[in-house]
Amino acid sequence: MRPVALPYYEQREVPVMTRLPSTVHACLLLTLVLALGACSGTKTTTQEEVESKQNYKYGSILGGEGGISLFGEPKRDDAQQGGGGLGVNSFLWRASLDTLAFMPIASADPFGGVILTDWYAPSDTPNERFKVNVYILDRQLRADALKVSVFRQQRDNGGTWHDTTVGATTATTMEDTILTRARQLRIAQTRNN
After folding, report:
1. Domain span at residue 75?
2. By C-alpha distance, which of 170, 169, 83, 171 is closest to 135?
3. E strand or H helix at 43, and its extent?
4. What is the pTM of this model?
5. How sure is the predictor about 64, in pLDDT bands with cuts at 50, 70 and 90?
6. What is the pLDDT of residues 142-169, one digit of tens each?
7. CB-based contact 16:33 (threshold 8 Å)
């Protein structure tokens, strides 16, 4: 029997290989088995790893355990001083945020130790507003590791804000409040440890 020639529009190319060779199937199957086998492994922990995790509390972006180490392992006295994974004293940092909690925070940089608030107008004096900048300058809990700047503006009858002077003791009072709160946080932590 002679093959019948099909018209050109019905002619199709027939693939040379319609099925994968058995070696390719074997490779795919082996890869799948290895991938699934790798997922079910168990990890044993040595005593040295356990002690290392207990000693390593800070220096990680994610805090606590794991994460990306930024500053390496801290010294024991560094953890006592409240350095933590921050670039500044963590007690001063938390105390500053606690003290300024009533004001809107415009920017907070824990590695540089800068907290900038936005303007805040107390509800009892709507024609007066304040802005506070806090600079934490050291990793130790000391009075000279903190600098607070307070700015004040008043609104005139036309609705325009003008800079005015702040009381001489306002910034110092705020620094004292932050330092007192930082000491309270440090004492609370030492009691818990």
Report:
1. 52-85
2. 171
3. none
4. 0.57
5. very low
6. 999 999 999 999 999 999 999 999 998 9
7. no
Cα–Cα–Cα angle for 46, 51, 54, rounded to 5 degrees: 130
Higher pLDDT, 18 or 149: 149
33 in any annotated domain: no
| Cα-trace Rg, the chain | 33
- Structure confidence at residue 51 (pLDDT): 61
**Alpha carbon of 121 to those of 42, 101, 172: distances in Å?**
58, 14, 20
Do residues 58 and 110 both lie within one domain? no
Q: Which one-letter amino acid corresponds to residue 72?
A: G
Same domain, 80 and 100: no
Alpha carbon distance 159, 149 (integer Å): 25
Question: Which residue's entry shows tokens 């000279």?
Answer: 144
